[in-house]
Every structure is written in C-alpha cells, then in structure tokens.
Specification:
two-stranded antiparallel sheet, 238 residues, alpha+beta, seven-stranded antiparallel beta sheet
C-alpha cells in the first residue's frame, strides 16, 4: 500500500466515524493539535497530510496501518506439509460468566471444545488492554436466543462465537467494516457493535427492532474495562 492509498483509506475511515456520530472534526482537531480548517481540508481532499500528520491522526484514533488494509491484503501463513486452512486448534466453550471473569479457564469451567482453523487464531491481530495479555486468549461461548435475535442475521441461536480476549480496543479491526465485540454489563455478556461517546459505551444491535444500550463509565473506568474481546470466528450448524 503506497502513501496515497494509505492517506485515502484513513480519510474514508475518519469520515465513516463522523457519519456514525462517534467523532467530529473539532474533536479530531483538538486530539491531533491541528487547526479545524486543516482537518476540514484533509477530509474534503483539499490538502494532504504529511507522513507525520498521518501518524498524529492514527495515534489519536488508536489506529495502525494494518487497520487500514483491506481484508484481501492481510498476510497469509506460509504453506506447510498440509494446507494451513486444514489445521485446527481446540478452543474451550465456556459459560458467559467464565468468559467475562476467568483469566485462566479451569477444567471445571469447560462445557465442551470445538475445533477452530489454525489460520483464524494465528492471523488474529491483538490489542490487549493493560493486564489482559496474561489472560487465556481464545475462548468460545454459545449464542443464546436474545443475542441471536439482536444480531440477526450475523449470529444464529446456539451458534458458537469465538472471542479473542486480547483485543480490547475500540479501533476498528478492518477498515469500513464494523467490529463485533463481546461486552459485559453487571456480569451479563452482550454481543454487539460498539461505539464510545461522552464517556458512554454505545452497544448497537444489528437488528433495528432491538434497543441500543448505553453504559456510563465511571471517572476511573476505561472502555477496555468493559470489552471482553472481539468475536473472531462464528461456528453455526445449518
């Protein structure tokens, strides 16, 4: 990806966040130290940012260059004696409570195990919050009826959602594609799209007939404290 493509992908990602109401030009200007007119010119293709300017915008929005790559550009694993996609690893399916609170899954907490393609786990990019890097990274949960209805048709009832508990960042995992998160409120686990504004987490369902949930954070609480992880794989029976 060359500089022009990086510049344009970042511009589109910032515009997407503004359109969704999670960012404004003035907020970005304050976070980066740029004049608001400078940000406006960037967003309207009237002025290019320097490489240093791009770094400031990326840092302000907790983005990396990898976040701006299209899915087709992500690296693939080198071939081995067998195709990587045919190799699997076991992942423990646990209760919602264990997924939320157990840093290391105990044998008594395992309901069953599933086999997940090794490539899915190996290629998942991590962004662990402070203290989360020591947690067992991948666990899975069964999707209950309410979770499935709220995220229909992305999730099906009784499907299995694999959670990457080392991804606790609000940074979009892939450009122009919403990230599906596991979030906890009072011990309950929600599978949803997620935004942050005015010190509130906004839990958005896929199904427009379900309500949006708001979680107010305390002064010492960070969004990552509520984010259990990213849904990186869903296994459903059809």
């Amino acid at each position: 990806m060359n500089f022009d493509t990086l510049h344009e992908n970042l511009r589109l990602e910032i515009l997407r966040r503004i359109d969704r109401g999670t960012l404004s030009g003035s907020t970005l200007a304050r976070a980066t130290g740029f004049q608001q007119a400078h940000i406006s010119n960037f967003l309207n293709r009237k002025r290019l940012l320097s490489l240093a300017g791009l770094d400031r915008v990326l840092a302000a929005q907790s983005l990396s260059v990898l976040d701006l790559l299209p899915a087709a550009s992500l690296p693939v694993l080198p071939s081995r004696d067998q195709p990587t996609s045919s190799l699997t690893q076991p992942v423990a399916v646990v209760t919602h409570t264990a997924a939320v609170s157990s840093a290391r899954i105990q044998p008594s907490e395992i309901l069953e195990t599933i086999e997940v393609p090794d490539a899915i786990l190996h290629l998942s990019r991590d962004r662990p919050a402070s203290g989360r890097a020591s947690w067992q990274r991948f666990v899975a949960v069964r999707v209950d009826a309410q979770q499935a209805a709220a995220m229909d048709p992305i999730l099906r009832y009784n499907s299995v959602a694999v959670l990457d508990r080392h991804y606790n960042s609000l940074a979009t995992y892939r450009s122009q594609q919403p990230t599906l998160y596991a979030v906890h409120t009072s011990g309950a686990l929600h599978l949803c799209f997620l935004e942050f504004d005015a010190n509130q987490l906004i839990l958005r369902p896929r199904n427009e007939h379900f309500p949006v949930r708001l979680i107010g954070l305390s002064p010492n609480e960070l969004p990552a404290d509520r984010i259990i992880g990213r849904v990186c794989y869903v296994l459903a029976e059809y």
